[in-house]
Amino acid sequence: MDGTAERLDIHLSSTMSSIPSAVPLNDPVIVDESLKQRNRECATTVHWNVLEHCSGLLANLAAVTQGAFVFLRATIFSIFQPLLPGLAMLPEWSPLQKERFSKLLQRAAVQFDCSNIDHQTSLRALWKAAYPDRGLNGLVSDQWKDMGWQGRDPSTDFRGGGFISLENLLYFANEHPRQFRRIFNKETGKRADWEYPFAVAGLNVTFMLVELLGLRADSKVPTTRAAVHFTAYLEDEEEAFDELYCVAFQLLDSQWLEMGASYMEFNSVLRATRNQIEQALCVPKLPRIYDLMTILNLPQ
């Protein structure tokens, strides 16, 4: 037993001797000046790291806050815009956009006048575009029914569309003649026994776009979401509305075929066309408004 205790005492003594003794409290502590300098440098580095980290956090917080504000604004707009049609998130307009939108409003306000020489000339030009090898007997003639007017006098059909609807048809014929003739002659797809009348359908497309974009005399600024997006195209394309018309008319014909529609279902086809145009306008801006043809999967 004594031998065991002696061995344990020797082991503890040797272990304790390897642990450094603490510095007595009353003895002075000598610190090297170089060590103090290194400590100050380390503290400075830590402070700068903390500041940089805090700056990064503040920047991230600002970005998140800004993003949250944009999201909140968009959410509020999406909730209340259907209830308040006049509510729209207006962009920062350029002077050129303002000028072109104002001109478009003026165009939409012009009614067709059968006594106006320019209007008469435009009507004859449309006939020539549709029937290049066929003469016209007069501005009042049964021939107009062949183009899809409701009666002998086309001027009676312009009540809703105004003169701009005739301008749209002429633009379509002159700028996209192949697509114009394809629709005018009903060249593609399985056609109904009772087809939609071409000319009157064209007037309805104009009227639909005017309503969609809020192009009324009392409209000084865009008042619908689709109109806000549309005005972005006016910066680069003065003829953006006419180009949109060409897209919409081709979409109407495509919807007509897809739905297997007949004359009595024309309004349903027009509504479907309006909905798709509205959705297409609200995608991020494309180089040209006619590029919506691709978004809408229309043949070019």
TrEMBL record:
Q: Which residues form the ELMO domain?
A: 118-281
Protein name per its UniProtKB record: ELMO domain-containing protein
Which one Pfam family would you cite for this protein? ELMO_CED12
For this protein, the record's InterPro entries field holds: ELMO_dom, ELMO_domain-containing
Superkingdom of origin organism: Eukaryota
